[in-house]
Amino acid sequence: MHELKWYVMYTASRSEKKVADRLKERGWEVYLPIVEELRQWSDRKKKVQRPLFNGYVFVKTHRNQLWECLQVPGAVKFVHFSGQHATIRDEELEMIQRVVTTGVAVETDGSDIEPGEKVKVMGGPLQDMVGECIEKGNKDYFLIRIPGIYQNMLITIERKYLQVMGNPDSVKL
Question: How many angstroms separate the CA atoms of 27 and 173, rounded?
Fold first, then answer.
């Protein structure tokens, strides 16, 4: 039998939490990264929880059981890249979990970006994480690329906590 892997499931719009719950009820190991943010309405502010990656749920299963997972209402398909099912390594999933549990401000971005300088975080809750640094306006963003799902996480980190690691072409993230 094939080994257990984390597969990337695409869900119907705004159905990530329901799909994750239904998969758990049926016995699958599921991870849905949730972040909390402050939303402003015309009459109030409220903290809301939202999925870190819109439309994505991570399911740990065997390749031959993917069809069974898709029988859950709200599940659409498993993500493919270059004809292969998208999987995410345990280390990548642990990195996402670490970022989510720190509570730092985070945005996600699935677009292609030009590689910047490779950096390492030297202090704070994300110490020793390695990624790319890109500058937007007057803010410093730390970029963690998750190659298994072609997603990027942009995290605001002060420049003083980032150490440049060298030529980004010589090192793979």
Answer: 33
